[in-house]
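Example record for the data management plan.
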Amino acid sequence: MAYLLDTDICIFYLKGKYKMNNKIKSVGLENCFISELTIAELFYGVEKSENSERHLPDIEKVKEAFTILPIFNSFEKYASERYRLQKLGLLIPDFDLLIGVTSIVHSIKLVTNNVKHFKRIEGVEIENWSLQEFNDFID
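Corresponding structural encoding:
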């Protein structure tokens, strides 16, 4: 099974929250991917941090740990899904939508703590590894 890790999951991984390191090791690093947009969001987080120099190496750690999936092959799906959500009045942030449709295009599960937004995307399969039902390592 392959997984696309959302930015919040990568932050949990970096901070050691929810024993995310153990969960990721259990499914195999080779089965965990991130979007290019996750790197952009991490850079943004570092930029707005009060201690950006301290957090900058975290981005390299994530880039080295996970295979980065491009988003360009998800643009058509993004457009159709954004239009569908717009008609329903259920738009979500573009980066979230692009990350979500990337998981669909690559036929992999999306791992996120932001289920509220991502569940609006038609066809996305979600797991929330910050919940014990998906993560046996949480006490």
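Summary line stored alongside the record: Residues 81 and 122 are 7 Å apart (CA to CA).
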